[in-house]
Backbone:
């Protein structure tokens, strides 16, 4: 059974989905890769994880770095889980590049090569927007490129963090 909850952010409505204990999805409504079927089959319910997610988002949208992370359970391939873990290490107010994420993955896993396209796809399919900070990944030229919630939101999120790119 899955449960959902809405959140009214300054950048537009968001939806959170939980398995009853952990957050499994957070994103802007109707963004690319929005899990319409999952949300459609979920029940609206107040849960502690939604309370902590809302608190986290309130702190974040007020321009501060939350000092906690709501309970999250990520579901994905081992490759995607590795990429999302790397994203969690990007500090508040900092940016990195898609290439840097790929190079870190190569180094950590001792791989001889990795598909930059696969890394970009994993970043783009991040199921927990903002908390897993895929918006902090920019292109190698220092510009914004691709964000499931839209480039205007990506830019706004980076401005909230006073991140320079």
Residues:
């Amino acid at each position: 059974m899955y449960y959902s909850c809405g959140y009214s952010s300054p950048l537009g409505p968001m939806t959170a989905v939980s398995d009853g204990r952990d957050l499994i999805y957070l994103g802007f409504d109707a963004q690319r890769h929005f899990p319409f079927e999952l949300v459609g089959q979920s029940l609206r319910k107040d849960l502690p994880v939604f309370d902590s997610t809302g608190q986290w988002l309130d702190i974040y949208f007020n321009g501060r770095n939350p000092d906690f992370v709501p309970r999250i359970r990520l579901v994905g391939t081992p490759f995607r889980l590795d990429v999302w873990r790397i994203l969690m290490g990007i500090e508040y107010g900092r940016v990195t590049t898609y290439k840097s994420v790929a190079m870190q993955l190569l180094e950590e896993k001792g791989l001889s090569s990795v598909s930059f396209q696969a890394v970009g796809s994993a970043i783009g399919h991040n199921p927990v927007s903002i908390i897993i900070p895929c918006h902090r990944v920019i292109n190698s030229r220092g510009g914004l490129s691709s964000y499931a919630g839209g480039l205007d939101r990506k830019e706004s999120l980076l401005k909230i963090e006073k991140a320079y790119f």
Summary: The domain at 78-160 is CATH 1.10.10.10 (Arc Repressor Mutant, subunit A). The mean pLDDT is 95.
